[in-house]
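S2.1 Query sequence (Leucyl aminopeptidase family protein)
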Amino acid sequence: MRQSHAAFAAPDSASIPLHVVGSEGLTAWLDTQPERVRTWLEAVGFAAKTGQTVCVPDAAGGLALAVFGLGDAQARVRGRMALGAARGKLPRGIYHLASGFEDDELPEQLLGWLLAGYRFDRFRHRTGGDADIPALKAPPRAEARRIEVLAAAEWLTRDLINTPASQMGPEELETSVLALADEFDAQVSVTYGDDLLHENLPLIHAVGRASDRIPRLLDLRWGHEGPRITLVGKGVCFDTGGLNIKPGASMGLMKKDMGGAATVIGLAMMIMALDWKVRLRVLIPAVENSISGSAMRPGDILTARNGLTVEVNNTDAEGRLVLADALALADEENPDALICMATLTGAARVALGPDLPPFYTDDEDLALALSDGAMVEADPLWRLPFHAPYEPLIEPGIADLDNAPSGGMAGSITAALFLRRFVQKTRRFAHFDIYGWQPSAMPGRPKGGQGQGARAVLWALPEVLGPDIENRE
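Output structure tokens follow.
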């Protein structure tokens, strides 16, 4: 928990009451308040509209309490983490929730508060500090430690994605994994450059060989008992598109093409910080897809780790190539759960937009658990199918597989089908086609890098692997 404002205030801190009120409950709540509070709120026109925030003074001119509006029921259905909006509107100080949320609503709202404190200020000369950001005491009935872990892990994911590619290449991504391993006493092995060929990881090598930033596979292991969980994250630290070069407008956000890696790093942090009884493995192919004389070419045929041949019909469909080798390696151990995260296709965004990533799995229990976890953890997901009739689209005839089927239809599904060809043993496999970016600021989610799906996975895994893996107090 590196950032102090990603944590709650000390329980014994003096604090200011914060009341959270929906518009339909405003009259009943006002009836419980002293006349001076009612008079003040009437004078300033407080109607509990969404995001409306009012500070009520005491007789000495200090701050007696604050009130935050939730709006009506329809507004609450449309949004999430509403309390996060309050953090940016309240003056500095320490607050406690005096009213407003049921127990089952607290985790989402408290997490929203902590996530709203995120700032990516590495490249700015700050004029303020942590003291300028209001703090909150967690209610005694809340799982404060778990919420703090989730917030800190999401902060790490956001930091990794937001960092420009000039400061976040394969080497720097490795440094981040090594730092996390050091914090939690995990072990990391790394395969570099031409050693990728010697270790039978040819697709990772083919994608990364054109860059002077050496490609590598990061392999973290943690834990000695319990089910095997393997996380695979796409770590393309910048994607020019290769010889099928992207237009400038499409290249502008490509520092986030390692968002899958950043998300599984955050998820791994959650699992280790919560001290789960599992054997965790994290595999990250870390490369830069660049242009040079040694770049892979359209029409090249590559042989993957598992022996399948792939015709490269678009060098900009490189993410599925590096993931193929990593998934084949992961599948050799036949883990109890295999999770793949990647900023993989624009087709997923066309279908579902930036806020609703699709996931794919053949395991019905895992699918149900992920859908439930998405709701419980306010971490939206939507299941799309491994649609078997589309299998011929990824079979070019000249090779076993085509990395970029022509026609452009069902692009997210065909990419998922491609990846599934490299997972033959593992029964519980899920692939997430995430965006990894928040296009405009929302409560708890400032514009910029964004983890997606990690909290839903964290909730789902004990449902399918057994509750004993959680080490809850």
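The chain is about 35% helix and 20% strand. The CA atoms of residues 266 and 407 lie 35 Å apart.
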